[in-house]
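Title: Prediction job returns without error message
Component: structure pipeline
Severity: low
Priority: P3
Assignee: unassigned

Description:
Job completed but the reporter wants confirmation the result is attached to the right record. Sequence as submitted:
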Amino acid sequence: MREEPISMEAEYDVIILGAGAAGLSAGLYTARAMMNTLILESLGPGGQLLITDEIENYPGFRNGVKGPELSQEMEEQTTRFGAKLEYTEVEGLDDLDKPLKVVHTYDRDYTARAIIIATGGAHNKLGVPGEEAYAGKGVSYCAVCDGNFFRGQDVVVVGGGDSALDEGHYLSGIVNSVTIIHRRDEL
């Protein structure tokens, strides 16, 4: 963490944590509004898009688009309007209740008047053999995103919580049959 005093002048109007679709979209809007914008990302732009093979339900791409391709387009559009993108690990936030917020990263601190948190989420994985190899090739984590790929087929939904049941219900209107696998006797 930084020990010298921080200047009272913000380096950025907005710092966005995460460069997935939400973070890049936020960066596009803030940069177009002439706000000095920094997007911090630990891995690479795109988030879940980077592991999505084919996207058929995104407006403007009648024939679908590969996730990494869409991610690259989003990054280029966002940076074209002046948003800066830096790759670093965020280690903490301070002074969130003050006019000047502080973002601590692996190699330095940044200051901004506003912080947008768009760090995304992660899917719960089963950890079973073949899961990683078949991700995007039959193993899916989003019924709304990928359900149409399984039209007319028999599918399995693993889980017993609300999300699993919602996904199964959604799929029931698309696929031939849905089997719910749950580790308990009741849902």
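Comment from assignee: result matches the submitted record. The radius of gyration is 20 Å.
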